[in-house]
Write a structure and sequence with these properties.
The structure holds two protein chains of two kinds.
Chain A (H helix, E strand, L loop, with lengths): L1 H27 L16 H10 L6 H12 L14 H36 L4 H15 L2 H15 L16 H35 L2 H8 L4 H13 L1 H16 L2 H6 L5 H10 L3 H29 L1 H13 L3
Helix pairs in contact in A: 1-13, 4-5, 4-7, 4-10, 4-13, 5-7, 6-7, 7-9, 8-9, 10-13, 12-13, 13-14
Chain B lengths: L1 H19 L3 H4 L31 E2 L3 E6 L14 H7 L7 E3 L4 E3 L2 E6 L5 E6 L13 H11 L6 H4 L6 E7 L2 E6 L6 H6 L6 H4 L20 E7 L3 E6 L12 E6 L3 H9 L5 E3 L3 H7 L5 E7 L3 E6 L9 H10 L2 H9 L5 E3 L22 H11 L5 E6 L6 H13 L4 E6 L18 E6 L10 H4 L3 H5 L5 H12 L3 H18 L2 E14 L2 E2 L17 E3 L1
Parallel strand pairs in B: 2-11, 16-17, 16-18
Antiparallel strand pairs in B: 1-21, 3-4, 5-6, 6-8, 7-8, 9-10, 10-11, 12-19, 13-19, 14-18, 14-19, 15-19, 20-21
The chains are: A mainly alpha, B alpha+beta.
Amino acid sequence: MKQYLIRRFLQLIPVVFLVSVFSYFIITLAPGDPAEMYITDEMTEEQIQAVYEEMGLDKSIPEQYAAWLGKVLQGDFGKSLYTSHPVTEEIKGKLGNTTLLMGTAFIWSLLVAVPVGLICGMKKGSLFDKAVGAYTHVAVSVPNFWLAIMMIYLFSLKLGILPTSGMHSLNNNTTWDLIKHMIMPVMVLSIETIAVFIKYVRSNTISQMEEDYVLTAESKGCSGRQILFGHVMKNTLLPIITLCGMRLSSLVVGSFITESVFGWPGLGRMGMTAINNRDYPLIMAYTMLSCVMLIIGNFVADLLYAAADPRVKKSILSAVDKGER
Amino acid sequence: MKKTLSILLAAAMLLSMAACGNSAAEQKTETKTETPAATTTTTPAATTETAPASTAKEKVDGGTFVMPLSADVKELISIVTSDDNIWQALSPMWDMMWYETNDSTNFYLAESYDISDDGLDYTVKLVENAKWHDGEAITADDLIFTLDACQTISNANNIVTPNGNGITYEKTDDFTVVIHLETPVSFYSNVLGRLTILPEHIYEGDPNVVGHEKSNAGIGSGPYKLVEWNKGESLVYTRNEDYYRGKPNLESIIMKVMPDAAVQEMAMQNGELSMMRITTQEQLDKFSGDEKFNVYSFSEVRTNFLLLRTSDNVFNDIKARQAFCLALNIPEIVEASFGSEIFASPANSIFTPMTKYYNPDQKNYEQDLELAKQLAEESGLAGTTLKYGYRTDRVGMEAQALMVQQQLKQIGVGVELISGNFGSGAINNDEQEVKLDLISNGADSLVGDPGTKNGTFGNSAKAVRNSGRTEEYMQAWNDAITAVTDEARAEAYERVQALSQETYSFIPTSQPNYVFVASSQFGGLDTNQTVMLFQDYIDLYMLG
């Protein structure tokens, strides 16, 4: 198993490398000159040239990439072109805000989706199941930005019960104030996630309910609740582990749109600003963070899945023994 | 059943999205109702308060004024930044030395300045009772230090190398500094006055202020002190009780980061904001006539323009440029881009009415489609497709691009629109993947002496690369900048404006106004006629 883990970990490296190459080239190929953001009309030719040299734009794209990679391998992600502050500092300053928001939305999604999905699966075809089905259709279709604006319109403007944006009210750093600011962005972020999770849980529940062990449990006289919580639920939730792993990256990179609309000072908004400013070092750091978190998330999900499901663990070990993994 | 429900839901969503849409381009199709008295930009800017005042209210002491910011600031100094957002965000805590308009000078940290007869020596006398927010006196040492700091800032050329020549400076007493120029520079007093002095004592002599940790100390000179910088969220200022020009009326000023315009509008309506800029007729109609709000409008002292690349493409031929210019109907473009006269007027010159030496009789290009077609055929412009770069972060630019595309079709010229953050230099950037044939941009801060825009319009290194400039034009510009008397400058700038037309490469299109709505709880908002809101926060007050 140890060998398998090491091998899996080493497999991450070429993936991260390839993502960095593609990301760098895609960013640099975007139309427009990034240096234009930092050149003013008063600059002399020498000063303009100095800007290009400082940004590394006087070199070819492969040379620029190599220089960037060399620094990154030494732990130096460079300085933000816009703020002149180290990229790592910029990210650290906002990571907590994004993790708080996205983490809360994620946990809330699980707390709602799991029981609702289980009930829908148990009571397939019922009015409740149909109503939730309609909700999931709508929730995955509605654009986030529209939903965000509508919520602000309703809760802030019309009802006046929630603040429009930001993370705190002025001169009010209480927990309740923070919660009030989080309600709308968390709802916006979780509405689609809840719908996706419900669909998975419901579908898994239905397929598990058709398994023989459920029939056995019924014939033994177990109640519906006992069957659901004692037997079905843990099997139903196994695929959710994979979903959670895939969502791990969002916990740190946030959401461009939701953070921008709600003025949440997180990494998502930072990423949006970096793209608008053609801030290459910051864009690359943000992209690589997302990539690494996604890969780690999948890796951790695989491990957890193996830990939770002995069949999967057995199959992995067997494949390792045969040299297939 | 499911299908029907889905269709109904989709229709409902589309309807509500249409209701939420607020694109300026869409506004041009609305019937133009009689708008409140629009600001005229042919005279010095007038403010329009369009909502009737309710029962007479009196000025009260205190109150909090909340303004939105589109983005957070990078650091807490605004020295020579060209970013309007940063200027606005930091303006409560920093004073200029003076501010020049086309017909007046407002003094702040300086009580006076003198220029020698030969235009080479500037003697600046600072006020003696101004203090930094930490209580230290503001002296000539601070101005000297700030000039040293400008030497390290690449976009401070207009201060330390005006017109390409260096300066020397020394203090003659604790509050007087003399600056020596190598050649007369007509706009120097304009830029020097707007310099925000830095506190020398906190930097311990290190002039590398950009990115310096002390630049976030928040020690300013203005009527408001920074008490809180919630990064990414807000800047909170409280009034400076010891301000040398008197205690400000408002207790606090708050700058709140709100990137989304729709959210700003809702925050304005529910009272979270005290003011916001408005850019569409729909917003104007919504807020005008509502007692809770007043609408203000004044010149943005900005000229939007189209700039043609002429070095190595079809526009190298002046006939092609003439065809381009004569194909455009500029008043129509402006109407489509901005939707209402209150938001912008067609430009007639590269300068604005608030610019010193502006010539109101200067004429812009007038559409002549027949001649344009003929010239387009002769020059080979007809049948080509031009690459047009436009900025999406500026009001009206997208709509303008679409109108230009439409109008050029009439003379058989295609236009490919490319959006991006294009500055004026993009037109001559040979390193770009896509070579642009024309761009739209704007020149702001066109108040006072226009020589500050030498880099955009004039004969500076960068501007010359924006070809089409004739020797005569560049000479006129140089004559204007180096003129010592007002009469000589006026004559030279009149030539500049006339000769600019003859290049056919620089097409002024619009002169936008800055229109904003504010809560009627506040007064004094119309006394500051500058786009950097607000030039003087002392004037603002709350009504009770």
